[in-house]
Specification:
129 residues; mainly alpha
């Protein structure tokens, strides 16, 4: 049984679905292409979580506008947003404790200097005219 939704609801649901799919794709690419375990963990735990959240929001919107609201989407979203960060944190703690070969890469060296003078353009002290 299909029901015609208002144009605004269709458009908003479409934008949410495309946004969710984009986040999920970016998270999946990050999982496949990033260099080490700790960087790869950001894909599924951050971007993909936002992607699934957008898809759930679109589903709740369509169900609500169609006159059949349910709590399923809200319960799934709460479960997802509570468990994804906790599981990512536990994976990092486990990797740091039990897998010494998975240490995070050291940070990139920062330029040294006297501070504010390094951030000014070379001709900042000259006056115009």
């Amino acid at each position: 049984m299909t029901q015609n939704l208002p144009l605004w609801a269709d458009a908003l649901a479409a934008v949410l679905l495309v946004t969710g799919a984009t986040f999920a794709l970016i998270g999946s690419i990050g999982l496949a292409r990033l260099s080490d375990f700790f960087k790869r963990l950001h894909g599924p735990s951050k971007a993909t979580t936002l992607g699934v959240g957008c898809v759930l929001l679109a589903s709740a919107l369509v169900a609500g506008v169609a006159g059949k609201p349910s709590l399923h989407e809200a319960l799934i979203a709460v479960f997802l947003f509570l468990t994804a960060p906790v599981s990512a944190h536990l994976l990092v703690q486990l990797a740091l404790k039990h897998a010494p070969g998975l240490r995070p890469a050291p940070p990139a060296p920062q330029p040294t200097g006297s501070g504010a003078a390094d951030t000014e353009p070379p001709d900042a002290g000259r006056r115009a005219g």
